[in-house]
Amino acid sequence: MAQPFPYTYYSCDCYDSKVAPNPPKRASQPPPADDEDERTFDPRNARSNYSLYPLEHLLYCEDCQQIRCQRCVIEETLNWFCPSCLFEVPSSVIKSDGNRCTRNCYNCPVCTSPMTVNTLEDPTDPSSSGGPWILACPYCQWSTVEIGIEFEKHTGITSQLSRIANGGKTIPTAKERDKERERRKEIEMRKKDRDYFSGSEDSPSTDKDEGITPSHDDLFSNLSAFYKSQMASQTPSNPFSPHEINFSSPSSFSRIMNLYSSTTHKKQKREKPSPMREAASVHEGLNIHDPATDAAAIERIKRSGWSSTLSSSQKLAQPNPSIRFDSELRPVASLLQTKRGKRCRNCRHILSKPESKITSTRYKIKLLALNHIPRLSIRALSPIPLTTTQPVLYDYDRLRSGIPTHFLLHLSNPLFDPIRVTLATPSTTPGKIQSRVTILCPQFDVGANTDVWDDALSSTLSPIKKPTSIGPDGNPQTSIEAGKIWDRGRNWTSVVLEVVPGFLIQPLGSKEEEELEEDEDVLEIPIFVRLEFEADVNAEERGLGDSRGTEGKREKREEAFWTVVGVGRIVGN
Amino acid sequence: MACGKRSGRRALSLLRRKAPWRRAGRAGVELFGEELGAVDPRVAAASMSRMSRPSRRVSIAIGRRLPCGGLSGAGFDLRQGPTLTSAPPSSSAAEFHPPHATVHADDFREAGNRGDWLPTSPTQHFPGREPSLCVVEIPSPCAPSWLGFGMASSERKLSTSLSRSVRGTTPARLQDLASTPESPRTPLLRSTSSLFGSPGGGFRTEDEYLVLEIGSRFVRGGFPGESGPRCTLPFGPDEQRRVRDYRQWDPAYSQRRRKRKRGHEWGQEYELYRQDLSQVDLGLVADRFERAMREAYNKYFLLDPKPRRILLALPPRMPHALMSTVLEVLFGNFQAPSIMLMSSPVLSTVAAGLRSGLVVDIGWAETTVTGVCEYREVHERRTVRAGKLLSEEMAKLLNAELNEDFAERAPKTEVSFEEAEEVLTRVGWCKSRPKSNRRTLYFPARTSPVLEEFEDAVESPEPVITIPFPRSTPPTELTIPFASLAKPAENALFAPDMALNELDDHELPLHHLIYRALLSLPVDVRRLCMSRIIITGGVSNLPGLKTRILAELDALVQSRGWDPVRSYGSASARHEAKLRQQREDLELRREEGEDKISGSLDPDIEPLPVAAGLQDPVIDPIDTKLAHLALKNGPPAACFVGGTIRGVETLGAWAGASLVAQLRIKGIVEMEREKFLQHGLMGASREKEVSVVPQRQSMGPGVGRGAGERASWTLGVWA
């Protein structure tokens, strides 16, 4: 993987527990689901990408006594801020103004770097306000000049930008649009009346479109207004004000009739509500397909070629992703970010809660898995004598096929209780290249994470066994023995792992044309870790109770999880 | 009438005891407090005095002290002015379904236990004029109690049960009203009025919606009332990496060309799901969807912790297993209290401003043609000629061009999916006019009408496009004739080189698919649909494609008419003769019509007896008058366009969903979280077909509440 070798991933078991109860759901899945317990974790499975996390990304719920990953927490937003100007945005503004910064924070639509406000002032002819202003990208030199937008002031860019369309024309505000719509409606009504009185037969649909195709937003607001008016015409606009009864509306008319006649109402009841009509013109949101726009787009591609079009990532970053040409780009206001607290999905206890101050990176509550789960790491046990002054870097990217190599699995214990660890791994790694893996000492103890000085002060601790011996040449000689740990410290233990990397190309009868896929040559070993330890009953007092605590009740606990250790990349011989 | 509060109170307690309908449990009583003026005690007195005579109509003069809002409220149908309408005689009490009335009175409050009745929503002000007279039809025993008179009692139990029923109040069902002639008239549109007329402050909090649209390659999400989604999230391999795997930002990596995974189909890594679930790991789908939704929630929606309802736009044919996977994620991981499903063709129709239309959704895996009539799917056809095939064709074209340049020395290059996709979306296009290829139009050889020759004007020099390929090693550029970039669309979507009989049913070219879909619609629906062809979907953005489809379709219709018989075999000659005869007749008559006078002036020629169907209709002056009236009052003529091929642009299914949610229209398919988690999709117990009327009603009252009491739900088109 892209992480440098060696690395360790921890699997959060919400992956299993979520799926297990619904076996019928997975009936369509090809591999036969054998026993959930028997199944070994497969880091090559596409799903494992979603359940593997580095230890630092995991939280730990003390009540459920389980690891909690991003998927098994509930997040709640505490506050909102702009990552670019670090201003906190109140939640009411989020509702009204959306999820982007409304100050001057803009990103370049071409290269996404933050844009700056520059002036276009002519030094020979300075203007009073400091001249027309633009947004410019300091990285790729794109600026709003290219889409024909200049600003009058250097502040309040957002409000200015929302009024200027590309090319410098002003965009009517929603109010103006409404007014315009009303005006048009009036005209149409009058025209209709005229048609009626003059008795002319021809349809009044002489749309003068002014040759402009309405924008997406225009259409949407037209359509929305149209639907609203249609809905409203079914019912009087304000049912609570009797003087506003709309006599032309059929429903209110029938209702008034109902008031005075008790016999007609049965018939009225059965009547279906009259359907609202379709949109009939552009001002109601109807947009008839126009071949001219198609032709224009084709012509434009033909003329200006590849460089004038937008890549898909550029398009997706735009507020309106359906654009095609670079002249339609708009500066992208920076997305707001949030500070979020996290709760356990099961018990709803808070797992992490940042301080609400934007500039503070501290947390009020933070229950990290780091403090509850032993850290497993791996490194090569270099065959080179340890005394050489300059450390020799082991090249994890070049594991040799077929040559047994030794690695050290290092387990350090963050708990205040000694733990007993059992490791398990499938004897051959899953995947196309099968490497043989042996853990020489799968079961061992790790000391408690006591105060560093406890070691020195207390003499009762068992002496740390050093499995190294002095070789014939006077250097510490490795004596790798099965069943023995390699080394041990105050709260850590390391054991040896023997790996025989598999062969990239099967020596016999393999098909030549099968090429290796991305990351198939990476040696990843799934290791199952099981811990047993005795802890105080009360989870809250763990750690504190250690020193005082003989009277505190102890209980036996165990924990188990899968990890995946990325050892290196195999190369052929 | 000098009866004061005391006697009124006595009356109330009397009434309280006789309220049989209370047990029906459906009644709702809502008591609004405070800010309204006091109810005139005379009202209560009048009701009391008339109580013994059921169903008597009473006219009461109400003093100006009483604002009309005092007696009525959200449920009381204020549109009827200051009138309190009917209630049933006691016999039909079970059918009686009173609106939740709002009555305010200081003396009620005094009469009852203080604090026993809780105003359920903020009181509204009704600044209307105070009426001087109103007609009150006082129903027999129960009426006052549904006015709330009985409520202010000491029965705490009652108040809780009632307030529960308030929450679950639905408008009366039509059937109920119909079966009991004397039943109180709960005005049908009351619900809508309370919805759109007045913002019921109490509801607003609970109907906040999120709008999601799920496609096979993208998911779009945003808020109602906005013209575009807040985010459009793709499902590429970059979205599938492990945490802390940052290789896509590694410049060395991004320069490399990605290989297709073994055993994977073209673009398989880029799709969320496929219709064929036999090869799909649903767990993986759930994982991917969950991650995308988490990104949407955390990065784009930025919501406060309050759970939101979800309006989900889905294609109308979706495997149930897939649906339940998606729903499980939304209900389980995102705590949606309820999800409303709407089918995307219908929403596309809404977003086009139409009620009916033929929605051609050129998506990723397949193109679906859905006939929508009055917001309902009536017909559907599909073909695999869609985005996937198109981008594969584009890749073939690019491969061929690239390998041509490099001759034999280099190993064959294979462009990656991204590259093909990029070229397609940036410079791909489609010829907007069909070529004069005989086989494109599939005319039977003998009858092919002479169409004008569509010949592309040959330009000189031939326009070319230069496409950079930074990912190939070494980075290279390809200069390709502009015209050839239109070939993939041609081949993939229109298949001009294949005769129709070589094609399978699932791979019909688009225009044929549309034609057949239209052909199989009933005539009246076809008339509506053919002039409302809505082309949508990702591929429809290809420049020229919409024009092309419409042109092809037009040509097809002109050449074939609406005759379902494709070949008459040995009888074809006769059939053609008949056709020709018909056409000639038509021509003849048109000519006749033009110079009718000359014809009639000639006395020698006996006018041919014309068939009744072909005669000019007699013009009825009343009809014309009605037509004028319709023109004046009814919808404009543009709403009745039909019978010609016409394309209508839509804003897309997402925008439609946004509109629908903004207008707070309720869909048929709405499921509650609890019920879904309990039963899954199997919980949909109601039958598939839901009649239009209840559906309209469910557009209903304060949207948020209708759903609460729905005992069962349906899967609608997805069933």
TrEMBL record, chain A:
Signal sequence bounds: none
InterPro entries according to UniProt: DCTN4
Subcellular location: Cytoplasm, Cytoskeleton, Microtubule organizing center, Centrosome; Cytoplasm, Cytoskeleton, Stress fiber; Cytoplasm, Myofibril
Keywords in alphabetical order: Acetylation, Coiled coil, Cytoplasm, Cytoskeleton, Isopeptide bond, Phosphoprotein, Ubl conjugation
Composition-biased stretches (Basic and acidic residues): 174-196, 205-215
Residue stretches of biased makeup (Pro residues): 21-32
GO cellular component, one term: dynactin complex
Segments for region (Disordered): 21-45, 166-215
Subunit annotation: Subunit of dynactin, a multiprotein complex part of a tripartite complex with dynein and a adapter, such as BICDL1, BICD2 or HOOK3. The dynactin complex is built around ACTR1A/ACTB filament and consists of an actin-related filament composed of a shoulder domain, a pointed end and a barbed end. Its length is defined by its flexible shoulder domain. The soulder is composed of 2 DCTN1 subunits, 4 DCTN2 and 2 DCTN3. The 4 DCNT2 (via N-terminus) bind the ACTR1A filament and act as molecular rulers to determine the length. The pointed end is important for binding dynein-dynactin cargo adapters.
Protein family membership: Belongs to the dynactin subunit 4 family.
Protein name: Dynactin subunit 4
Protein's organism: Clohesyomyces aquaticus
Lineage: Eukaryota, Fungi, Dikarya, Ascomycota, Pezizomycotina
UniProtKB/TrEMBL annotation, chain B:
Annotated Pfam families: Actin
Protein name per UniProt: Actin-domain-containing protein
InterPro entries named among the record's database cross-references: Actin (IPR004000), ATPase_NBD (IPR043129)
SMART domains named in the record: ACTIN
Segments of this protein annotated with the region Disordered: 160-197, 688-707
Similarity remark: Belongs to the actin family.
Polar residues: compositionally biased ranges: 177-196
